[in-house]
Amino acid sequence: MKIAVLAGDGIGPEVTREAVRVLEALRLPGMVLFEGDVGGAAYKRHGHPLPAETLELVRTCDAILFGAVGDPDCDNLERHLRPEQAILGLRKEMGLFANLRPAKLFKGLEDASALRPEVASAIDLLIVRELNGDVYFGEKGMRTLPDGRRQGWDMMAYAEDEVRRIAHVGFKAAMGRARRLCSVDKANVLETSQLWRDVVIEVAREYPEVELSHMYVDNAAMQLVRNPGQFDVVVTGNLFGDILSDQASMCVGSIGLLASASLSQGTLGLYEPIHGSAPDIAGQGKANPLATILSAAMLLRHSLHLDAEASRIEAAVAKALADGVRGGDLGGTMGTAAIGDAVLERLT
Ligand code: GGG
């Protein structure tokens, strides 16, 4: 069980440290952790945000625990050298196309949600975000128009096989849950979304037990706040999934709580909090490590098939939150290490 730990930038190292402490506390026989450089930290040391050494490391590992990337020192670099290219590069290079982002209200956090408690307490959904296509990977550029204005452009594109494979992930996830799948697109305006919808409908024939619905992304954003309890599994593209999952995080209290798994067709998976590097609070010991700790639990479940151990971590986090453990993001005063300690104390 080889795990690459890529802590990255900003609060990445702080939150990853707590997740590593939790993994180590489980004393799993044969689990070995290897650290690698990624993001702005890797650029500063190796001249590239995703150096060859890191790619070599992840190729020999079963799973990746990832912190966050993003560093204001790198803002003026060419796009291919920016820290964010490391996570996009890893997802593409390793074929990590399916991003699972669960959002559920923990007991005791009803008051922390941006929604009314009775609305928030119904949230138990899974966003399945496509990760290898869309405007993130389409052709892009900057040009000067004949009248002298600069124009930036990013091509939104999906091929049908890319939609088909993520649709299967969505339907399979729904089969293991409440058997409801909502496909989110913008089919009234976008060609990519027309194709997306057609392919999802084709794939649905293989899953007659799953109730399929379709929603435009603008409506989905509104419904997520109005009545989030209606969603079970949401399958959507890269850009829409990125935005909707940040929105979902505030519905359950904080972006510091949402974990994610990025899965490939093979066995390798990458696990990371959905939040970024938060440079404004980096190095101050203020960041909430729970999303990274919960990502470590997803790693145990999806890549190492250690369900019982994953549940132990999730139960410890739930107990800590129910007992009132709160960082600044949830209106409390506890720091990163104290929150990590609170989880460790409750790990049974
Ligand atoms: N832990 C998530 C992270 O570091 N996010 C920074 C980022 O640039 N993410 C791009 C994306 O999620 O698409």
From TrEMBL:
Enzyme Commission number: 1.1.1.85
Question: What InterPro entries would the database entry show?
Answer: IsoCit/isopropylmalate_DH_CS (IPR019818), IsoPropMal-DH-like_dom (IPR024084), Isopropylmalate_DH (IPR004429)
Query: What main location does UniProt list?
Result: cytoplasm
| Cofactor(s) required, per the database record | Mg(2+); Mn(2+)
Residues annotated as binding substrate = R91, R101, R129, D218
Q: Which reaction does it catalyse?
A: (2R,3S)-3-isopropylmalate + NAD(+) = 4-methyl-2-oxopentanoate + CO2 + NADH
Give one GO molecular function term: 3-isopropylmalate dehydrogenase activity
| Gene3D superfamilies for the chain | Isopropylmalate Dehydrogenase (3.40.718.10)
Which parts of the sequence belong to the Isopropylmalate dehydrogenase-like domain? Answer: 2-343
Pathway stated in the Swiss-Prot or TrEMBL entry: Amino-acid biosynthesis; L-leucine biosynthesis; L-leucine from 3-methyl-2-oxobutanoate: step 3/4
Q: Where is this site: Important for catalysis?
A: Y136, K186
Tell me where it resides: Cytoplasm
What top-level branch of life does the organism fall under?
A: Bacteria
Cofactor remark? Binds 1 Mg(2+) or Mn(2+) ion per subunit.
Q: Where does NAD(+) bind?
A: G276, S277, A278, P279, D280, I281, A282, G283, Q284, G285, K286, A287, N288
Keyword annotations of the record: Amino-acid biosynthesis, Branched-chain amino acid biosynthesis, Cytoplasm, Leucine biosynthesis, Magnesium, Manganese, Metal-binding, NAD, Oxidoreductase
Q: Which Pfam families match?
A: Iso_dh
Broadest EC class assigned to this enzyme? oxidoreductase
Q: Which residues bind Mg(2+)?
A: D218, D242, D246
Tell me, in a sentence or two, what this protein's role is: Catalyzes the oxidation of 3-carboxy-2-hydroxy-4-methylpentanoate (3-isopropylmalate) to 3-carboxy-4-methyl-2-oxopentanoate. The product decarboxylates to 4-methyl-2 oxopentanoate.
UniProt lists the family membership as follows: Belongs to the isocitrate and isopropylmalate dehydrogenases family. LeuB type 1 subfamily.
NCBIfam families attached to this UniProt entry: leuB
How this chain assembles, per its entry, is: Homodimer.
Q: What is this protein called?
A: 3-isopropylmalate dehydrogenase
Species this protein is from? Novosphingobium aquiterrae
Tell me the gene name: leuB
